[in-house]
Amino acid sequence: MRLTAVQKAAKALNVLILFALACNVALLYLVPTAVMFSQGGFLEGARGYLSGLLHPDEDDIVMAGVAGSVLAWFWFWGDAETLVPVLSLLLSGGCTAVILWQARRVLGAILRGEPLSLENAAALRRAAGCCFLVSAGALAYVVWGIFVRTFQLSLAAALFVPVFFAGGLLCLVMSALFRQAAELKAENDLTI
Asked: The pTM is what?
């Protein structure tokens, strides 16, 4: 069977989403370590940790860095300064992994030639729920930063709130459209 242009694009997107999902899962493992090493910000902590592992100096020991990343999963529970950012990032990263997985399911249905299905509507509804969770988690982190950390606002977290909320609304609308289209298609198939 020959693939249509939409199916070719879906196949390419499927590969890209799989790569993004693999990177997401790998980075989820490094979240506690990056937060604990972040004196100049989360990205600076992640950059410093990864550059130390990938480009060790003469006195650096790679295995000590790996052991430190494992131990960071136990150390971050003891300090509220690291607990809230780590849990917020883990929630966001986990929900992002679910969103990517749901996107793979939608693309899989397109590759099978069944774009208008109730399965796609359900996958988009699950993605919308995860978008709302990321938005709520980011809002909680922003509020925590304002009241507990005395008005230290994380711009990235503040941007996550409206972006993921709008993404959730968009996914809900698309889910309703897919559901309605699947019902109309099923009704048309019965009238033939």
From this structure: 0.80
